[in-house]
C-alpha cells in the first residue's frame, strides 16, 4: 500500500520541476508491487467514502500516497487551466505528465469497493435505520478525534473555532431539508462537486457531506440500481469539484492548515444532529431529534461505541505508521 515499494517516491524529477506546465511531485509509479498496493489502498478508500465518518484522504495519508495523490489532482487541474486559456499544446504536455497508472490502479480499487457495498448499504438503510445511524454516529465522532491529531500546532483558540463551527452546524442542520428522496440533477451536480472535495481532505468524509446535503441515500441507491443518468451527473460534478477545489484547498491548507482543520472538525461534531438514531421513522439524515426508544436502544449505543473504538484503533495504527515513516526519513537523511 505504501509508496515505499516504488522506490524513490520522495524524489522529484528535475526536468519536471523546471517545466511550468508540470506540478512538481514524486516520479511516476511503475512498480507492479506498488501499483497492486495502490489498488488495495483504493479499495480501502472506496469503503471509507461509502461509509459516512471515514475519509478516503485519511486512508491515503496512512498508506503513504497522499502527497502523490494531491500532486496528480493538481496536475489535472493544471491541464484544465491550460485548456481554458487556449494553450492546447501545453495542456497536452501537462496531460502526459499525469501519473495515469497510479490513478488507474486507485480508481479501479475505489470503484470495486463502491459497487460491492452499495446494495448492502441500501438494504440496511431500509431495514436497520437505527442501528446504521448509530454506527455512523460512532464513526464520525471517532473520526473527529483521530483527525484532531493532525493539528500541527494546537492552540486553545482552535478549540474555540471548532466549537463555533459545531454550534453553527448543529443549528444550521435543523433547517436542512433532511433526506431528499428525489433530488434534481442540478443538486446532484453540486453534491458531487462538494463531496469530492472531502476526498482529498484527511478527516472529512465525502459521504458525510452527502448526508448533510440529504443526498446520501439517493446516491447510494443510484449506485445499487445502476442509475447511469444520476451517476453520470454526479461524476461530472466530481470532476468540476476536483478541478476547482483541489487548488483552493491546497492554498487554504498551505496558509491556514490548523484553522481550516478546526472548522472541519467542528462541522463533523455538529453533524450529530443528523446522525442521531431517533426517531427512525424519518430515515437516516433527518435533523429531527427525539429521545431513545424501542428495543434497540442498548444495541444502538453498543454499535456506536464499537464504531468509535474501531476508528480510535485505526487512529492509533495511523499514528504508529506515521512515526515509523518519520523515523525512516530521519535515518535516510
Order of helices and strands: HHHHHHHHHHHHHH
Sheet bearing the most strands, described?
A: none
Low-confidence stretches: 1-15
Give the amount of beta strand, in percent.
under 5%
- pLDDT average, as an integer? 79
Which structural class do you get from the secondary structure elements?
mainly alpha
Total number of distinct structural domains: 1
- The number of helical runs is 14
Name the shape in a single word: globular
So what's the oligomer here?
Answer: single chain
Number of strands: 0
What percent of the residues sit in helical stretches (DSSP H or I)?
over 70%
Termini gap: 23 Å
- Rounded to an integer in angstroms, the radius of gyration calculated over CA atoms is 20 Å
Task: Give an overview of the whole structure.
This protein has helices spanning 14-18, 32-50, 56-63, 66-84, 88-96, 100-127, 129-148, 156-172, 185-199, 206-213, 216-225, 228-270, 272-275, 297-332. The chain is mainly alpha-helical. It has one domain (3-332). The model is unreliable at 1-15 (pLDDT under 50).
